[in-house]
Amino acid sequence: MQAIYSSLIQQLHDHAKKKQITKAVIGVSGGLDSAVALCIAVRAFGPANVTAMILPEVGITKQEDIEHAKMLASHFGAKTFYQPINNFLVDFNFVTWDKTDTSSLNLKARIRSLLLRHCAEAQGAIVLSSANRSDFLLGFGCREGEFFGDIHILGDLYKTDVTEIAKHIGLPDELISKAS
Description:
By secondary structure, this protein is of the alpha/beta class. Helix content is 52%, strand content 11%. The protein has helices at residues 2-18, 32-45, 63-76, 86-90, 101-123, 133-138, 159-169, 173-176, and strands at 24-27, 50-54, 79-82, 126-129, 151-152.
């Protein structure tokens, strides 16, 4: 796992250097994928150049996930923005067309990606995705939501690989064993 982990850091660093990119923004959910992706980003860019965005839906997002996200961002020394998405959802309650559970879930993911992009553009940064290969293959996400980003750091790794990297870098067992 050390070789894969080091390679991911080096590839991200080399790509950023080649494209003259010095900053990155990443959504941090408090889950394993975003924790591993955040760690890689901090190692590639340096903590002062990584912004971790915590974008919960207050009342829906588990408090444990919010606390894990805050703890991870603090631990890795990333700049952190905490921005609940609730206010952005309000006006969508008044649209005149029918909504489905899927359209509502995808809307939440798209609002998060919009906020990530807005923050990245304001800072002259790129958006990093934490979706893994298993997510892509199983369709756990939408293109403009969970699969959104300029670089998919974990895009070639299966969930089992992400778990092994998490163990290798010493992330807490509580995070590693947490359900997706």
